[in-house]
Specification:
alpha+beta, Jelly Rolls, 6-stranded antiparallel beta sheet, 12 strands
Length: about 230
Amino acid sequence: MNNKRLVISLAIVGIILLLVATAPAEAALKLRISTDGGATYTTVSDGGAGDFNSDTGAITYIGRLGVWDLNVATGVGSAFSGPGSIDLNSVNNSSGAGTLVIDFTETDFDTDFPGWSMLFGGTLTGPAGSTVSARTWANDSNNLFATESLIGTLGPFGPGAFAGEVGASASVSPLYSLTQRVEISLTGAGQYSGDLNLQPLPEPASLAVWGLFGLMGLAAFQRLRKKRRNQAS
């Protein structure tokens, strides 16, 4: 096999590995919003009743729940966020004091990552004593809304703009589920607007494989350039 064919072969292998690594799993997604200590709640499945998002792999809920007169929450699964990643963003307005809990969950993650990076930011308006916080979990049971292995906690944050990031590991093995939770507690009328993002840390083994193929491709390309220069001279 000459150098040109070697470069082409390595490129094909790299594309195949990329397609395998990014192939979406047949996962279940659900979004749940609750208040009054869980007594009042609504649960929305991907593509089910109450889902205002037509895309498979993402859920959008729009509605009213108790004193929370405006709720627009979107959970984005790994089909859009990438393998091992989920995202929860929401705008919630309350006409009075109360606590709102927003949960987003996805099952059937089949890649074992060394850990995750959790990012949480947004704006909270409300009287003194109002707070917002976030938590995420990885769950070997692969159940929806499971809270087994805590990945991280951010907050509580008080009124005003806020942002935080934490990286942590969680002991799980495929298949497993991921769950996000945002808890908003207002002492009076107010509003929350923010985003909770969970991203996996790279696998050392994956980095080594891609690095190896990158080096092999670079070496083959350099040999091909050298051969062409010698032929030209």
